[in-house]
């Protein structure tokens, strides 16, 4: 065990060094992105090693000319996605996250989230970019939320929630959910009617789209959508507005039957309906511990 | 001494006014337009349209691109060159990186808005003289295709110029500290780079990855020089022998999906 760990560390170190040489970079990106899950210290290795982050930034900006008009090949997309997976490590790690934010590196991914092409290379590019942002918000850290709210992340997430595949939509909704769960984020989104209705409309459209699916609705997407709505209902003005703009489908027992195996989400939905004032619909979900609206917070 | 200071991009001058930028000589009037350019006085109208289109979008694009590029460059060069006593190497690396990042960001941000703005400008200018809508569309589209890159280049140049000026202001203290250490005959060391506040890193990194005083070599500097080799336009045809992508999602995309499992 110890010997293999040592061997791993040496291998990783060697691949990190290879990142700064264009001739060895592509292979190093591939090898390191395979190792990232089993080597928890990859992030500090990357951050502190001379030029490794600069090299990853070169990979990112080298793709910009292929965004418009869209001409990203599968090969170029895979390569940059490997670089992004390494940045996701840096975003996840407790000892590099703040440095990563301080250097404003997430903003270099925003041009990828602006793209509209639905081809697979672009879809993977958006998904992997969202993965980096998702890794930032996954740990609950108000500094991260403040940073993201000072940027255009909300409109960019909403865009993916409209045009992305199910998986991209879910990651984007997860990001919005994590932003909302922070008080700063909830207050930000509920600060103006325009913001609230922009988020509400996109969440509503996703619910409607799920109901129209040929297959079963996506449970994991619905779970994050419902959590977003529930959190919005903690704000008094949003709670009022949701009375009229919450999709009726969420009170339709035929539609919500798809949640029958997911107690947590069913309880969230029951609490949401109770908060918004649809106590009969809440009761119909059969979640016994939801008996009254949760207290509102903030002003 | 190396406590991070926000780059002073807001203190920089506004980008050069668009009027100085385009210059009559640089616009392209496509020969395929025959005698239309003379009739419509395109030699006068097109530079004016390019100038106005640039003017509509340049200020926010340059501000944003330069600000981001300066933040990133500031943090990364101070980290990478923490053990390097030579301020000229720090300055050179910073210039290479900040120009490239600000230029790339400004191009990717400006391209689509500039296309729209230039189309609108040309359409407004030429509409009174061209009654046939299809012909107007055609002329405008030829002119936009031929001159969009000129507009992009001018915006990119404004961004790179400002970025270099701004990063020098932000890094002035770091340059001065190195000069001062040399004049005093002291070895240069940036203590912050060796003892991250309350962090195990970089101290517990393997020897080969830890920053070392004077440890920078030519192959290190090349990664910064490589910033000048990033293509600014898409290749006309994909490079020969581009290997096919393996089937299925790239590994990176799997990383995003893994976030959702807990």
Automatic annotation (TrEMBL), chain A:
Q: What Gene Ontology terms describe where this protein resides (cellular component)? A: CCR4-NOT complex
Gene Ontology biological process terms from the UniProt entry: mRNA catabolic process
Q: Which Pfam families match?
A: Rcd1
Organism's domain of life?
Eukaryota
List, alphabetically, the Gene3D superfamilies matched.
Answer: Leucine-rich Repeat Variant (1.25.10.10)
The Swiss-Prot or TrEMBL record describes its family as follows: Belongs to the CNOT9 family.
- Name under which the protein is recorded: CCR4-NOT transcription complex subunit 9
Supply the source organism for this entry. Chlamydomonas schloesseri
Show the taxonomic lineage. Answer: Eukaryota, Viridiplantae, Chlorophyta, core chlorophytes, Chlorophyceae
């Amino acid at each position: 065990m110890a010997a293999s760990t040592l061997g791993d560390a040496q291998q990783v170190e060697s691949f990190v060094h290879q990142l700064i040489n264009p001739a060895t970079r592509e292979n190093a990106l591939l090898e390191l992105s395979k190792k990232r899950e089993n080597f928890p210290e990859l992030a500090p290795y990357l951050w502190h090693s001379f030029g490794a982050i600069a090299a990853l930034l070169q990979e990112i900006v080298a793709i910009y000319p292929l965004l418009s008009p869209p001409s990203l090949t599968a090969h170029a997309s895979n390569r940059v996605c490997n670089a992004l997976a390494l940045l996701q490590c840096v975003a996840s790690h407790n000892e590099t996250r703040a440095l990563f934010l301080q250097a404003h590196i997430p903003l270099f991914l925003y041009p990828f989230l602006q793209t509209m092409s639905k081809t697979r290379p672009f879809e993977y590019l958006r998904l992997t970019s969202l993965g980096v942002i998702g890794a930032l918000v996954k740990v609950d850290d108000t500094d991260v939320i403040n940073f993201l709210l000072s940027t255009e992340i909300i409109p960019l997430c909403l865009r993916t929630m409209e045009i992305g595949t199910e998986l991209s939509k879910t990651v984007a909704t997860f990001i919005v959910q994590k932003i909302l769960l922070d008080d700063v984020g909830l207050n930000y989104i509920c600060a103006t009617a325009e913001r609230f209705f922009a988020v509400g409309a996109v969440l509503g459209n996703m619910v409607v789209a799920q109901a129209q699916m040929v297959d079963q609705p996506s449970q994991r997407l619905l779970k994050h959508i419902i959590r977003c709505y529930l959190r919005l209902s903690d704000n008094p003005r949003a709670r009022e507005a949701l009375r009229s703009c919450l999709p009726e489908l969420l009170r339709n027992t035929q539609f919500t039957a798809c949640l029958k195996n997911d107690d947590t989400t069913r309880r969230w939905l029951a609490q949401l309906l109770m908060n918004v004032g649809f106590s009969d619909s809440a009761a119909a979900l059969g979640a016994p511990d939801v008996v009254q609206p949760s207290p509102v917070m903030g002003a | 001494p190396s406590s991070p200071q926000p780059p002073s991009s807001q203190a920089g001058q506004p980008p050069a006014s668009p009027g100085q930028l385009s210059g009559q000589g640089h616009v392209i009037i496509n020969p395929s337009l025959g005698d239309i350019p003379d009739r419509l006085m395109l030699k006068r109208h097109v530079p004016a349209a390019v100038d106005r289109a640039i003017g509509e979008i340049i200020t926010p694009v340059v501000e944003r691109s330069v600000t981001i590029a300066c933040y990133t460059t500031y943090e990364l060069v101070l980290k990478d060159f923490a053990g390097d006593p030579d301020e000229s190497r720090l300055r050179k690396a910073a210039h290479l990186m900040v120009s490239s990042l600000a230029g790339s960001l400004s191009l990717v941000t400006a391209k689509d808005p500039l296309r729209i703005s230039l189309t609108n400008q040309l359409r407004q200018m030429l509409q009174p003289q061209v009654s046939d809508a299809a012909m107007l569309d055609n002329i405008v589209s030829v002119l936009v295709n031929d001159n969009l890159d000129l507009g992009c280049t001018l915006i990119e140049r404004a961004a790179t110029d400002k970025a270099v000026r701004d990063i020098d202001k932000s890094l002035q203290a770091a340059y001065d500290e190195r000069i001062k250490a040399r004049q005093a005959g002291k070895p240069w060391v940036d203590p912050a780079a060796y003892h991250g506040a309350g962090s195990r890193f970089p101290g517990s990194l393997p020897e080969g990855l830890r920053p070392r005083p004077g440890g920078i070599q030519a192959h290190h500097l090349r990664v910064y020089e490589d910033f000048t080799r990033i293509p600014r336009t898409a290749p006309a045809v994909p490079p020969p022998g581009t290997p096919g992508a393996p089937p299925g999602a790239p590994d990176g995309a799997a990383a995003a999906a893994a976030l959702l499992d807990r």
